[in-house]
Amino acid sequence: MKGLFKSKPRTPVEMVQHLHELLVFVLGNTETREKKRAEKIGELDKLLLDIRTVLFGDGQIEPNAEACAQVTKEFFQKDTFRLLINCLPSLDSGARQNATHVIANLQRQRVNSKVIASEYLENNLDIMDILVPGYEDSDIAWTYGAILRECIRHQNVARYVLESDHMKKFFGYLQNPNFDIASDVQATFKVEYHFELLTRHKSTVAEFLSANYDWEYNSQLLQSESYITRRHAVKLLGDMLLDRSNSAVMVRYVTSLDHMRIMMNLLR
């Protein structure tokens, strides 16, 4: 008889609404019964997988554009995006992975031809104040790093990070003794291929470099005791200075005796 009364599948909007309720429950942490809390966490894990399936499809069926738009709109309208980021430390590794995929997909979804993630992040830039310091927590660093890279795709977010105190912190994170975390920070910077933060948004970066010419980049990275850090730093420096939009900064750099001294020491 029980099988005759199966609950009706949730619509995409109802999925996000229920996710919102579960996230509020987990963050509230008012439930003292461990079994009840574990049940809610398990329900949250499954729901994240269901939402991921809506956005990506299941391998056999392509995602429905209307369903994706509904999920995206509901996510940003009710601030579920922020709740999910705040809740990540409480989730297990599988749920974090699903959440990261969901967040990455939402960054690209269009609703009425608009990427509403960009507008949402512009009005909620303080979310970067959660993501960037995430590198200080080895348990959550990789998850927050992956999400941060997706957010930096939006120019308004890149500008905020460049102009904030977080920029200086990055150079400390790059020298983290934990190789995996340092590598993830380097991935965020795209040091090995294309420096995401300092080469994707060229006009923004040109303004930043001109206004912050005397930053601590050389002293912290080019003179690091770590060979790997120095090698990545040289690659990054080349990517920046050889870009046409940074020609004025390049001229100032190559005419500096102090910078020449650093380069000569690196050649030894």
A few lines on this structure:
This protein has helices at 12-28, 34-56, 65-77, 80-87, 93-106, 116-123, 128-131, 141-151, 155-163, 166-173, 179-189, 196-199, 202-211, 217-222, 227-241, 247-254, 257-267.
What does this structure look like?
- The chain is an all-alpha fold.
- It folds into two domains: 7-123, no CATH class; 162-268, no CATH class.
- Helices cover 67% and strands 0% of the residues.
- It contains 17 helices and no strands.
- It has helices at 12-28, 34-56, 65-77, 80-87, 93-106, 116-123, 128-131, 141-151, 155-163, 166-173, 179-189, 196-199, 202-211, 217-222, 227-241, 247-254, 257-267.
- It is elongated.
- The N and C termini lie far apart (81 Å).
Judged by helices, strands and strand pairing, the structural class is mainly alpha
Low-confidence stretches: 191-195
Mean pLDDT: 82
The profile of the biggest β sheet is:
none
What proportion strand? under 5%
Share of helix, binned = 55-70%
Instruction: Measure the end-to-end span.
Output: 81 Å
Radius of gyration: 22 Å
Tertiary shape: elongated
Question: How large is the count of helical segments?
Answer: 17
- Say how many strands there are: 0
The helix/strand series, from N terminus to C terminus, equals HHHHHHHHHHHHHHHHH
Count of folded domains = 2
